[in-house]
């Protein structure tokens, strides 16, 4: 009954992302941090400033687009305005772009970054889980959503600096005791900014017995 609409301009498009918007969105290019995948201005650097100064719990991560309009606006609508069908489009985009990378990492299970139960009740869905589900279907790799739990209600991260995010997320996650850990896990989230959420989640998964943790997100901030 309802025509498919582009997640960026919201115009009718049978292709999902329309041709005009596909030309406008900024994909992460070749000049990026070799660890987290943030785009870099200085092509002589291998790591962004965040990755240079910390030891990481995850092995590597990649993101599809730079977190600027129209991508940032679309991600916001996915998260807060019930545009759940965007996840189907975006999940397929992740699969198309990163299929080779996912196979190379040897991923055995896909795990979405969870919401706290209070946020889940309020929002009614977890956008990371929707993305992970679509990616799982495209790749034929199981999604395991009842593995990682957010046990602490954290404050919104968007207005915090790196140190504040780190403290805010301390003790935020737990892993199901009944879970049989995989060797290679792929975490899925919508946005990567400082990496605090991914770091905490990866750390608790490794304590549970996971050997290698990787991540994919839709969008990512720019590095220096």
UniProtKB/TrEMBL annotation:
Gene3D superfamilies: 3.40.50.2020
UniProt cross-references to InterPro entries, sorted A to Z: ComF/GntX_DNA_util-trans, DZR_2, PRTase-like, PRTase_dom
Record-annotated Double zinc ribbon domain positions: 1-51
Pfam families to which the protein is assigned, alphabetical: DZR_2
Family: Belongs to the ComF/GntX family.
Protein name: DNA utilization protein GntX
Species annotation: [Ruminococcus] torques
Upper classification of the organism: Bacteria, Bacillati, Bacillota, Clostridia, Lachnospirales
